[in-house]
Amino acid sequence: MSSKYDVIVIGSGPSGYVAAIRCAQLGLKTACIEKWKDDKGKGVNGGTCLNVGCIPSKALLDSSHRYEDAHKGFKNHGITTEGLGIDVPSMLKRKDKIVKQMSGGITGLFQANKVTSLYGSGKLLANKKVEFVDNDGKTEVLEAENVILASGSVPVAIPVAPIDNDVIVDSTGALEFQEVPKRLGVIGAGVIGLELGSVWGRLGSDVVCLEAMDTFLSIMDQQIAKESKKIFVKQGLDIRLSCRVTGTEVVDNNGSKEVVVTYTDKDGNEATSTFDKLIVCVGRRPFTDSLLSDDSGVKMDERGSIYVNDLCSTSAPGVWAVGDVVRGPMLAHKGSEEGVMVAERIAGQKTVMNYDIVPNVIYTHPEVASVGKSEEQLKADGEDFEIGTFPFVAIGRAVASDSSEGMVKIIANAKTDRILGCHIVGPNAADLVQQIAIAMEFGATAEDVGMTVFGHPTYSEAVKEAALAVHGHAIHMPNRKKRK
Ligand code: FAD
Ligand code: NAD
Fold it and tell me: Which residue puts its alpha carbon closest to atom 33 of ligand 1?
């Protein structure tokens, strides 16, 4: 095997593996280096997303939703259940099977596209050389015309709550609880806190989320964030804002461990809460440990990410970086699109990525999803805009399926009517917001969406109605604006 490649990708998460496949599709001789190992020490592809992120969390969200629906929702439909129970080990086994299937799928795609899959760790040296140490410790120096760094991210650690992987865990540990904790503490009411808090809450945990900020989901559209919070609180999540954790102590209580968390509450008073398990999910940071030699020429930015321009070029010629390890939201699809852009750039194409249209979803039930700018961002930009909102309670399909909580909000430029943002909390919000992402990509106006024929009865009729509501033309609710 020659050790000279057109492209070497370091990291096989959604950013790296997509980049590698696209490079190979474009006829480039490509290798992808991955250091992740399974519990048997075997190399696996897929990174955070497939192994401990998007996929396993969604597997547990789905299982726990089914349980909760059977437990609380079925009776509304006249369906009775007896002897309903939870078998956590089976639930985890199903999740693990899905993870294995999906990461095996990447390996299959690598074979089909003739990407050389190398298991071990990669380090970028000067002049696009890569030191590769395989999982048996054998070292080789590989060369490439281009190197793509896709080394991802890891959870942020906080000294006041050190992870012991037993009582105090990060998101990875929270996917592995062998039984439902009775009292579950969550530090950080962000995406992971809400998703994994929901999983265990649905299965029976009393969940308390301690959030440092005084606003809930502060980067989201606040109308949607407030509506979401109301729904989550009704579901039983105890979300405490303005809480600063100052200490944690794992103690023994009659042979079982628990953790006492000390924090300053919203009134500035010291408070304590005791939990059986504590999840620390206060963000993720770019991962670059042992990735770069001192003379690699790759510069970092002030936030510890690899510095890149809009095209994902680093400061070293021929070296690119994509995904969580660079600026921007830490989302699988954002990294994948960067991977495609870089592969096509390397192949001489002029591809650019539209960073203004990257959907963002929280997979609670109902889901919270957004694309484009929030009302707050547009106000700060001084933009002149119109808003249309529409509640799911006026959508037949939503009512028929007991999924009528939430709303769609569409924001359009006041003069051009071009859609600037869409924010949804409600059933299938992830898929609904994608409709507006496509519309925005084509420069659609609210009127364009309002004039589109939507199937009936569908949840997506709320999208059409919200678009109509921008001009006061919604049909299935009284409009606040005067009809023209
Ligand atoms: P990663 O997926 O982190 O992959 C990086 C890979 O590089 C890893 O496999 C690592 O082992 C490897 N690597 C690092 N250094 C080296 C080296 N020197 N040599 C060889 N290999 C190396 N995002 C979404 O969009 N939707 C979701 O629903 C979602 N859910 C999530 C749920 C959880 C619990 C978590 C933790 C994250 C979730 N995310 C979600 C975020 C998503 O997982 C990340 O944005 C995504 O995985 C980033 O992809 P990446 O390829 O940049 O990095
Ligand atoms: P996050 O940024 O979504 O939320 C972290 C929360 O913790 C914030 O609300 C923050 O204010 C709070 N916080 C920070 N320090 C704190 C402290 N000391 N005490 C209390 N609260 C504190 O981060 P996350 O939930 O850890 O998720 C990490 C990243 O993973 C996300 O930003 C996202 O990019 C990605 N992710 C995405 C999805 C998805 O797309 N559905 C799901 C999970 C994770």
Answer: 53
Closest CA relative to residue 232, chosen from 220, 224, 221, 242: 224
Determine the Cα–Cα distance for residues 472 and 464; give it in Å rounded to an integer: 12
- For residue 446, pLDDT beyond 80: yes
The answer to whether residues 176 and 115 belong to one domain is no
Q: Whose CA is nearest to atom 19 of ligand 2?
A: 212
Tell me what the mean pLDDT of segment 180-185 comes to.
98
Contact 66, 19 (CB under 8 A): no
Q: Is residue 160 part of a domain?
A: no
In a domain, residue 352? The reply is no
Distance CA 342, CA 322 (A): 8
pLDDT tier, 130 (very low <50, low <70, confident <90, very high otherwise) = very high
Residue of the CA atom closest to atom 14 of ligand 2:
282
Picking from 282, 310, 334, the residue at the C-terminal end of a domain is 282
Q: Is residue 125 in contact with ligand 2, taking CB distance under 6 Å?
A: no
Q: How many domains does the chain have?
A: 3
pLDDT band at 95 (very low <50, low <70, confident <90, very high): very high
Ligand 2 centroid, distance to 284 Cα (angstroms): 7
Among residues of the chain, what percentage have pLDDT more than 70? 99
Ligand 1 nearest atom to the CA of residue 334, by list position: 25
Closest by alpha carbon to 147, among 128, 123, 126, 125? 128
Instruction: For residue 1, name the pLDDT band (cuts at 50, 70, 90).
Output: very low
Q: Does the Cβ of 347 fall within 6 Å of ligand 2? A: no
Determine if ligand 2 sits within 6 Å of the CB of residue 14. no
Identify the H or E element spanning 8.
strand 4-10
Mutation pick for ligand 2 pocket among 51, 61, 192 (CB with most ligand atoms within 8 Å)? 192
Q: Which domain holds residue 407?
A: 360-469
Which pTM was predicted? 0.97
Give a yes or no: residue 18 inside a domain.
yes
Residues with a known catalytic role: 456
Q: Does residue 78 sit in the same domain as residue 181? A: no
Q: Tell me the per-residue pLDDT of 362-385, one tens digit each, with 9 for 90 and over.
A: 999 999 999 999 999 999 999 999
Q: Is 153 in the pocket of ligand 1 (CB under 6 A)?
A: yes
CB 395 within 8 A of CB 457: yes
Domain CATH code at residue 243: 3.50.50.60
Q: Give me ligand 1 centre to Cα 154, in Å.
A: 8
- Supply the residue whose CA is at minimum distance from atom 12 of ligand 1: 11
> Which residues have CB under 8 Å from 86's CB, separation 6+?
67, 180, 203, 204
Evaluate: CB of 314 within 6 angstroms of ligand 1.
no
